[in-house]
Amino acid sequence: MPFDLDNPFEISCFSVLHPDRLVHESVGKPDVTLNLAEVLAGPAPYATLVLADGIELHHQPASTEPVNTVAAALADRSGYDGSGIRGVVHLTGSSGDTDHAVGMTDGDFMSLYELLASICNVMGVRLWRKIRPADLVTIRYTDLATGDLFWFGGTSHRLMQVKDFPAGQENKLSPDAKVMVFDDGEEFNWYPDSSFHDRADRAPSGYWQRTGNQLLPADV
Known about the structure:
Blueprint: E1 12-17, E2 22-28, E3 33-35, H1 36-39, E4 47-52, E5 55-59, H2 69-77, E6 89-92, E7 100-102, H3 106-123, E8 128-131, E9 136-140, E10 149-152, E11 155-163, E12 178-182, E13 187-190, E14 195-199, H4 205-211, E15 214-215
Parallel strand pairs: 2-8, 8-15
Antiparallel strand pairs: 1-2, 1-6, 3-7, 4-5, 5-6, 9-14, 10-11, 11-12, 12-13
């Protein structure tokens, strides 16, 4: 969806939540709409639950897919007890009793995800996200382990060890900082409470275990 460069801070957000807890978000211009009758076509009309002002959940009541436990918990939190939602759900802004829903504002989107986060914490689950190889991901330095590749300046360096700063040369930015030593002799600072961005296909294996994100193949 193209952005309106005349109004770069005016956006709308849509989310899709699958029964296996895989989610996908899309962001676009405020006037973009979603055809609910098209994406939730089935043997019965789709159903809409108003979770809050500006946030709606749409699902197919006749779905025979597995129970969407996170979506059901989200509906329960919003007063729809025992909803038993199955299959894929679409989370949008207001549809105004039509088949076309606008996206959520960025504020409503963040409120929704704060609620989802609290639900998932209680349930002891985490949401998986579709990440493509070229997408940027946020990697914590603590995700790195010996043998991992660390990309810097378009070049990979294999991590050999993390060592302390020499005595009297402690890092002024962080007293807990250490030094990463690589197989090619390069050294970079390691900050336990910091993170950096890199391509998804350059993330260390520890990144995927920590976040639960799902990396898609390049041709998806």
